[in-house]
Amino acid sequence: MSTPPKLLRTALTLATNGIPPLPLRAGKAPFGNCHGCANNACGGRPNMKNEGPCLCPGVCHAWAAATTDPAVLTSPAWVAAWRRAVCVAYHPGAAGLTVVDLDDAAAVAWARTSLPATRAVQTTRGEHWIYRGAMSSHNAVRPGVDIKSTMAYARYLGPGAGTLTDLPDTVRGLAVKESSPVRSAPRSISMPAWSGGGQCPHRTPAFLERGIAMAEQRITAARSAIHTTVYGTFLAVLSTHGRCGCLTDTHVARLFTAAQTKGETARHCTEAWTNARTTLGL
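Predicted structure:
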């Protein structure tokens, strides 16, 4: 087998331990969807257990592609991806884990005085603190700090050092702390009702589905100015559906997945979403 042995061995070891891995391409981005899954034509994989209507054998749907099945990890489609991959990532939430991503020395110093000790893994500029327990993922909960768990992926950078401890309320509180210096965009979207309290005038499944599909297609088709396209698309979706409660976690995840497939980071997606909501006063 000509698959890069180190990456494949790492992935299979993670899978054996119940941690679903996936390959990342250059730029630490997931592989793009295949033709059959483009624009979510297959229906996607809507939950953290990698289950759903999509039966694509390829490395599709970003974080949702992560799997512990060795037959999938060593299948021809995945072998092709491993050959192009630059590193291994994993889906923390599916393994019952939460990663507190500390992006720089200042964030690490904050964590050492504010969070209970747990297993720590060195990164290029900071550390990953890993806790036992899953929660929703949030970016920029404070300067230099992201939370990666469900519907997200984290790079695997080694086993780390220290004893894995239970996810504390302190970390869960970071996602909802109103006084956080940086406003986060939570995965669980709660939109304000119309000022008049009336029903949404366009709340039909077909209208919403068409709008989300068109938004995904617009992002996928972009050849330049990706940041601008993602922000403009998020703004358009929110301007139509942001005040009536139509949007669900699944819809937002589809938009984020389309953006990340084009090379956007999870942080950029969250910033664009937050900025669009702020612009519209949501």
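Summary: Residues 47-52, 178-198 have pLDDT under 50 and may be disordered.
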